Amino acid sequence: MSVSEAFTLIDGGAAQLLIVADHASAHVPDDIDLGIDEALLTDHIAVDIGVAEVSRLLAEQLGCTAILGGVSRLVIDLNREEEAPGLLPVMSDGHVIPGNREADLAQRLMRFHHPYHHQIVRLLDGMASPFILSVHSFTPSLASDPHARRPWDIGVLYNEDDRAARIAIPLLTEAGLLVGDQLPYSGKLLNATMNRHAEANGIPYLGIEMRQDLVGDVEGQRRFASIIGPIVLQCRNSLA
């Protein structure tokens, strides 16, 4: 395992497969004051719950590398374009993030966003025929929209390249999961990291969103890793 301020690398082996987890960390560096209750750092607004653990399990299972984002998305959202709204959030699901109002966006880009994405480029450049698995998780309910139902166990997201999605969705369904196709979000809107590193370069990828309450403990994390791993291999082998 290799750790920097911007990312953590999990070295599970040399397979031509990269696991990318933009929102795997709730870490806020000591010199950054977000002005929020620290309890919020365990909430979905700060981190994709279960993603770091599932990504580690998958890296070991698949014999590949995983890159985990090193800071909370409240510090900077690594899954946003550099000019996108929400890159440096001042509000998230009804919670104000006052420390970001006067923050130096350029400094946070240079400190976290650029090193993270440059490392992804380096990892992909070292693979002759890469496949990417993008791992996220979603909350079953939003405080700002409590009546919206999010019943899916897992979502599959993509923008223009739906090759792996079309393979994975029926396999995830056969495994007993309730699958959302472009749910609870659409990859047409929220797909920045995969747009940049996969779609722009013709690299096949699978983007998944696991429901957080189903991967919040060790049993759930192991269950999802055991389901997702073989399906990722089928996608990669079909598209290699």
TrEMBL record:
Xref: InterPro entries: N-FG_amidohydro, UCP029730
The GO terms this record gives for MF are:
hydrolase activity
Q: What is this protein called?
A: N-formylglutamate amidohydrolase
State the species of origin: Sphingobium herbicidovorans (strain ATCC 700291 / DSM 11019 / CCUG 56400 / KCTC 2939 / LMG 18315 / NBRC 16415 / MH)
